[in-house]
Amino acid sequence: MTDLFDKCCSFSRDQEAIDKGFYPFFKVISRLNGPHVTVDGREMIMVGSNNYLGLTTHPKVRAAAMKALEEYGTSCSGSRFLNGTLDLHEQLEVSLARFMGKEAVQVFSTGFQTNQGVIAPLIGRSDSVIIDRLVHASVVEGVRLCFGKVGRFRHNNVESLRRNLQACTSNQGILIIVDGVYSMEGDIAALPEIVATAKEFGARVMVDDAHGIGVLGATGRGTSEHFGLADEVDLVMGTFSKSFASLGGFIAGDARVISYIKHHSRALMFSAAMPPSATAAVQAALEVIETEPEIRERLWENTRFFMENIVALGFDTGPTQTPIVPIIVGEDVLTALYWKRLFDEGIFTNCVIAPGVPEGSQRIRMCLMATHAREDLERVVDVCGRVGREFGIIR
């Protein structure tokens, strides 16, 4: 009989990279200070974080988290369904619903859990769910848990979406799921065309806007606001680990839909509630997003400066339209070696290799922050260019 652990013992890719000195994962950070981090006693420029607005160090957000910790303690020690609902949770849900322009919101303990906890209960055996092929892994896992028919369409390709819709029968409920901003590409969903096509077939639309809320739109409400489609998208999912500077996630939509989810979602009902400090931090971050729009403006100033200079050097940044900036290298070992040299030069980036992205598109993924100083970005551009020429990635 085969030993279950045989596959574990034969897995050696991690140790091989460690032995060769270019293992890019699980790097230990001993101090976080917004756009700078300390690793092995050395200060580095962080361009790998999703802390787009830099609110993890905002004094109002820190103060709110500390106050909640003092007043409520460290944990709810129970699920929202039973003994874990605080007034902080309900206050946040009301605030988020108003901000997102939806009737109701339900918060979850993590963003990954949010997608699992929304998709699985909504999609029954007689329903269909159709997803963009590049949606986040949490959407993929949520789809795997549902009992309905699953379709996938080519990234941002509306004709491919249409063919999937045509394969559905008239008695099926249909949910189309896309990311608002794609986390590895940095591009934005073709939402106007997707919404219009969904209406033709009577399908509902859900947008995972983890990387869009706080970043896109006139007031930071995300991809739907960016396109003027806030009332046309049925469900909007967001996370708190990015612009909201905390941990958790939420789903926003019609009140009856949210009520159905909260009474049928196993991921919600059987998980501990968001801790008080994290909940209060999100509430404070939301207030900052609404009252300090200049922070988002600085983020886009930094994004434009960085993109102009990186593209001018000759790097392939793919289709990005956002503060997510990939540098496409195209091969696992070269990507890891390039990452290692940047790391040695004091630049903390993300190394993304297959199967995280398709073969031939392996990349270094960077994210800009509102709190990056211009000299930080100039330093990153200089190092990327110098090392890129050394490795033959650019000329």
Give structural notes.
With 395 residues, this protein is of the alpha/beta class. It has helices spanning 6-10, 13-20, 59-72, 87-100, 111-122, 137-145, 158-166, 191-201, 223-226, 255-264, 266-269, 276-291, 293-312, 332-344, 374-390; strands spanning 31-33, 36-39, 42-46, 104-108, 127-132, 149-153, 173-179, 204-208, 235-239, 249-253, 324-328, 347-348, 350-352, 363-367. The protein folds into 2 domains: 11-46 and 293-390, Aspartate Aminotransferase, domain 1 (Alpha-Beta Complex), CATH 3.90.1150; 59-291, 3-Layer(aba) Sandwich (Aspartate Aminotransferase, domain 2), CATH 3.40.640.10. The strands form 3 sheets. Strands 4-10-9-8-7-5-6 form a 7-stranded mixed β-sheet, with helices on both faces. The protein has a 4-stranded mixed β-sheet with strand order 1-2-3-12. A 3-stranded antiparallel β-sheet has the order 11-14-13, with helices on one face. Helix 7 packs parallel to helix 8. It is globular and about 60 Å long.
